[in-house]
Specification:
By secondary structure, this protein is α/β, with parallel strands linked by helices. It contains 5 helices and 10 strands; from the N terminus they run αβββαβαβαββαβββ. The protein has one domain (57-199): Rossmann fold (3-Layer(aba) Sandwich), CATH 3.40.50. A 7-stranded mixed sheet has the order 6-5-4-7-8-10-9, covered by helices on one side. It has a 3-stranded mixed sheet with strand order 1-2-3, with helices on one face. Helix 3 (89-96) links the parallel strand 4 (80-83) and strand 5. Helix 2 runs parallel beside helix 3 (89-96).
């Protein structure tokens, strides 16, 4: 650094800095479920989904996850695909709700590993796989959950082999362009939105 920039400065970092984020990660109640970390106790009267995000995206606390989970709880259990599963929150919730089979897909191998571990910790069975939903052939299912970016949702919808889809990951002001689909329901929170879509 001294050779490249001519200046060098070091600052002591407090011990345990790598786990400091845990102080900000708290459980949330969404309908019938509490979604939270293993270092917190869930409240009484709700089902627990214990999530250790590890290196994967998804603690369950983001509004888009909560909105998607809220809509998912109103669907009849059937075959489901969770696209961009991250830490496995939605796939695990689906399994606890009686959906089967539950397929979870993510392009990040670390996410697949974490989703499998979290499913095991929650005592449910999901089929977590590494794959690209915008390239790979997708299975025929009854419902798809996709809490991903808006451009991914819009590219994904024409490829889905399902009758219904719960989508999120975008702002309330930016509804997805979904030719061939009609919106059945929409939920909002903190400027974000989730939609329940059905094929026309």
């Amino acid at each position: 650094m001294r050779e490249s920039f001519g200046v060098e400065e070091a600052t002591e970092v407090a011990a345990g800095w790598e786990d400091g984020w845990r102080a900000f990660h708290h459980g949330v109640v969404v309908g019938r479920f509490w979604v939270g970390p293993p270092w917190e106790e869930p409240p009484n009267g709700v089902g627990a989904i214990v999530i250790d995000p590890g290196r994967a995206f998804g603690t369950g606390a983001h509004p888009t996850t909560r909105l998607t989970l809220d809509l998912l709880q109103e669907e009849q259990p059937a075959a489901v695909l969770d696209v961009g599963c991250g830490s496995g929150v939605l796939a695990i919730a689906a399994a606890k709700l009686g959906f089967a089979p539950v397929l979870a897909l993510d392009v990040d191998p670390a996410a697949v590993e974490v989703a499998r571990a979290n499913a095991g910790a929650n005592g449910v069975e999901i089929d977590a796989r590494e794959g690209d939903a915008l390239v790979d052939e997708l299975p025929t299912v009854d419902l798809v959950a996709a809490n991903v970016a808006l451009d991914v949702v819009e590219a994904l919808l024409p490829r889905l082999r399902s009758r219904r889809a719960v989508t999120s990951g975008y702002l309330d002001a930016d509804p997805p362009q979904a030719a061939g689909w009609r919106r059945v329901d929409r939920r909002h929170a903190d400027g974000w939105a989730a939609d329940l879509l059905e094929r026309r």
